[in-house]
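[Q] Does anyone have a clean structure-token version of this?
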Amino acid sequence: MLRHPASTGEAASRVEVTAWRPQHGRLALRYVIHAPTDELKLPPMTESVRVDHLWRHTCLEAFIRPPAGEVYYELNLSPSTRWAAYCFDGYRAEMADLEVPPPQIESRAYPDRYELEALVDLSGVPAFGGSDWRLALSAVVEDADGALAWWALTHPGEQPDFHNAASFIFDLPAVEPA
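[A] Here you go.
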């Protein structure tokens, strides 16, 4: 991923993300933040519940757009294992909670990196049927001193904006039902 030039956080030297569809209607994500973890502000692990405003601190994100229309979905995953999922009718328009089961989140900190793996069940969302998906993958990384860095596959604007339609550059092909 690329660090946005407006970022002030400098602890992370690199952020990597891998996304795949292990089964029909499921999304698997693996994020690795390369940084001394004592230089990151990582919330303690807690109960995995839905919580708003996770993006204000270290948060790993995936934005998903079905092949047709302007509707898109946002997933927020915290190192604490808290999470959020939203639906938008268009660019930042008509945000609503996306009703999905709690993701399975594994969070691990090592001296030189932080890793988060998640499995998200989107099979109950009609738009996620057998279609291909286009993703925008991103991360907000907070340094121990509170400085933030915005990472994404691309940054199409002068300001960090993970919702920008031009950010959806990762194609994820459909997986046939078993």
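[Q] Thanks! Anything notable?
[A] The longest strand covers residues 133-142.
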